[in-house]
Amino acid sequence: MLLGGRNKVYNLSMNTLTEELQRIEWDPRQYDKEYCLMRRNSEEQCQNYIRLYGKKDNGDVYLCGTNAFKPRCRVYKKQPDDSFKMVTEEDGVGKSPFHPMQNSTAVYTDGMLFSGTVADASERDPLILKIHQGSMVRTVQHDSKVVNDPDFVSSFDIGDKVYFFFRETAVEHINCGKAVFSRVARVCKNDKGGNYLMKNLWTSFFKARLNCSIPGEYPFHFDLIQSTSDLGQGNPMSTTHSANRTDMVYAVFQTHPNSVRGSAVCAFRYSDIVKTFQGKFKGQSSPSHNWLAVPQQETPVPHPEQCSNDTHQLGDKALNFIKSHTLMDKAVPAAGGAPIVTMHGINALFTALAVDWQVHAADRRYYDIIFIGTDDGRVLKSINKGHGTKVESVIIEDIQVFENKAPVTSMKIFNKKGVKKLIVLSNSNVASIPLQRCAQMKTCRTCIGLQDPYCSWSNNECVASDRGFEGILTGHHENCGVEVPRKEEMTEKKESSISAADTAIGIVCAIVLSSIISFIAGYKVHSCRKGDQMTANPGEIYGTLTKNHTNKLLDNKEPRYVNHSDLERNNSVKQLNLLVNIQPKGSNLPNGGAPAKTVVNLTQPLPDRTYV
């Protein structure tokens, strides 16, 4: 694994996360660093942060770095001893960001580099750029209708198109106040720009809003996209058939900082994204008019969603429409119509995620298992256990990966040669943890209670297998907790048994007798305390009540997650139930509610956890 860092690219072994191979050293040029410091930037900022990676068809590695606010790119060739040797170096403006904290993305595919970043240090010229054999195609410069102060999140290619995920200030909402919306934009790989009217500018750039919201009469939106998974084939709903999977992507969203603090994970099917770009466009007749759907008869034929074989041949009428209509009317809906997982409150926010697609469980169903990173160094493992179209999220585990509570910035699932693990990164650390910890559950009840598709109870142990028995839907199984009594115990019980009639008569007599005794005792106590209560100070009574009812909001205590093994040893341990997608009584939300469920928190260092 090549891991870009400050002035270095680490060459790590995926099995041990150790540097078994030579790293790539790349310091900023001295005069670039001196000039950066003269501009009153800090020593920390005036370094070379590696921000872009691409692999060419011949196996060469393409890297770009900030280079003390003077972006540069290099090509490295892999040597027989697995080291890397620099071949060429070039300007990196428009490919890599200037500032190490600027959000950017890039994808290298089919010999072409597609990037979403900024073209100047002041961040006033954001762009989506394609570079191929010395030619360049980019978005229109300084046009807020195209990209308006964006934060790029991720990008991927599929077929003849490249997609970009980002958030930006919504120009269509400006008449109602400033707002930030999440977007997905797409361009055609073979777009060469227009002939004259839009020379070296995209003729295939369109964007649409991503709708991640809790439905209702007044939907609650999670507007700030933070991260996405890789494009994969999955299904947000559990299914019994492996063929019921489709191209899709999961994404992490947060609310605005001045809104109710919360975050969510939504799933988007690629087919829904394509359908949105095949629909109507949104536009305004003049700057003083509202943004409305453009009538279908005004849309060029063929629909601009189709990639043109030769963009130089597009007519002026089509180019004028494309230049002034980059926004689609409809938003891309979330699969299932609602978030898969939500979190509200002040404890943490979701930051990143990774997905293990379509894991086959012992209940003969397939699940997308979602690993979600938080801004306090934790990783949550979650699934949607619902059948059909119902969303019923379950938090299986809650793992504190970084003890210093550093925010999780990225995650990847490694699956090669029978080894599967989750790679978790922060700004200063990388760690690996196993995808499952089935063997830590020592009883059938705790194993089934995990509701983990990886785990099943087989041969009196909890194993990572789909051949035992499971209880994902309920967290229980009829075969758990059933003990066959010994022959001697069965004989003794038979000899001491009494008839059902005798038992019923005894129960009735006990109930009547206890009722009489309770009435007499209650009457005596009431008579004794009546006089004292009439003369007591009302303030003293009220003070006693308030002192005995602790206000948990004022305790300022952090919640404690409970390990299932603790529950076996001590049934009196208090449990904290992490609730996801709670549905109030009488609510008609389509995503349903998740049952209260204790999650596992591995607070002790994991023996199989690796840090760098």
TrEMBL record:
One of its GO terms (cellular component) is plasma membrane. PROSITE patterns: SEMA (PS51004). SUPFAM superfamilies: Plexin repeat, Sema domain. Pfam families: PSI, Sema. Keywords: Developmental protein, Differentiation, Disulfide bond, Glycoprotein, Membrane, Neurogenesis, Secreted, Signal, Transmembrane, Transmembrane helix. GO terms for molecular function: chemorepellent activity; semaphorin receptor binding. Gene3D superfamilies: ligand-binding face of the semaphorins, domain 2, YVTN repeat-like/Quinoprotein amine dehydrogenase. It is found in: Membrane; Secreted. Its main location: membrane. One of its GO terms (biological process) is positive regulation of cell migration. The chain crosses the membrane at residues 504-523. Residues 1-435 form the Sema domain. PANTHER family: SEMAPHORIN, SEMAPHORIN-1A. This is Semaphorin-2A.
